[in-house]
């Protein structure tokens, strides 16, 4: 938790990031940047999915629809925050010549997305829609 | 093979990064359109217009950050991404999610 607070401070203090170690090959930094952007796109897709569930599935019951939308939006926001945190940690690790940080997040995210997909199948199969 | 004064990376890393920014702005535009659609579903009250204005503002911030970064990447050996830009992009994404939650409720 204290480590996390330190990471958050690094988000806002770019000069402190530059104080760490020495500048890595710029191509490594660019690769790190692209990974960050890929995670941002994942986050945007999840947020867009949240909007889509609310707008394009009006037949779902209110609770199911809002629950699904909120789950997707919350995961999207978490994904974006985690993206910047991971980017900062990778950048720092490269500067210090340490191993890149490992993360449980991809597994958690894939399990979450799989769960939402299965839930949608169940919802459709059981016909939990309000009906037209 | 390379222009004067530039040492072009054979792996085209700056170009790939620039395209990654383009893809990301494209994704953010799609989400912004969905958000606008959500905001302007009703009768067009002043609250709805204000919500739409906020979304357009978020989208413009996103575009501006991406545009600046894309221009910086056009140089032969680009500087690293500024944490402030990374935070701005993340802030826009989270803001869209929060907006969605507020509207849905």
Automatic annotation (TrEMBL), chain A:
Topology term for the membrane:
Multi-pass membrane protein
Which top-rank group of organisms is this from?
A: Bacteria
What coarse category fits the chief subcellular location reported for this protein?
membrane
Subcellular localization, as worded in the UniProt entry: Cell membrane
Transmembrane segments in this chain: where? 36-56, 62-84, 105-128
Which keywords does UniProt give here? Answer: Cell membrane, Membrane, Transmembrane, Transmembrane helix
Check the record and name the PANTHER family matching this protein.
DUF202 DOMAIN-CONTAINING PROTEIN (PTHR34187:SF2), FGR18P (PTHR34187)
Indicate what this protein is called per its UniProt record: Membrane protein
What organism is this sequence from? Streptomyces virginiae
């Amino acid at each position: 938790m204290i480590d996390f607070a330190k990471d958050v401070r690094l988000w806002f203090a770019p000069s402190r990031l530059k104080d760490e170690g020495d500048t890595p090959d710029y191509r490594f930094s660019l690769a790190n940047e692209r990974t960050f952007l890929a995670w941002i796109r994942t986050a945007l897709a999840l947020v867009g999915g949240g909007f889509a569930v609310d707008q394009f599935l009006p037949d779902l019951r209110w609770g199911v629809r809002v629950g699904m939308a909120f789950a997707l939006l919350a995961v999207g926001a978490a994904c974006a925050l985690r993206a910047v945190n991971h980017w900062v940690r990778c950048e720092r690790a490269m500067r210090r010549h340490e191993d890149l940080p490992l993360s449980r997040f991809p597994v958690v995210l894939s399990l979450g997305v799989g769960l939402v997909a299965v839930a949608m199948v169940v919802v459709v199969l059981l016909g939990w829609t309000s009906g037209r | 093979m390379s222009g004067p004064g530039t040492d072009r990376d054979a792996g085209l890393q700056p170009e790939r990064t620039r395209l990654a920014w383009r893809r990301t702005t494209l994704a953010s535009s799609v989400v912004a359109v969905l958000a606008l659609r959500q905001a302007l579903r009703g009768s067009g009250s002043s609250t709805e217009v204000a919500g739409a204005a906020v979304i357009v503002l978020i989208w413009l911030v996103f575009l501006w950050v991406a545009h600046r970064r894309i221009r910086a990447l056009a140089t032969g050996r680009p500087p690293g991404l500024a944490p402030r830009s990374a935070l701005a992009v993340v802030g826009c994404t989270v803001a869209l999610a929060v907006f969605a939650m507020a509207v849905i409720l």
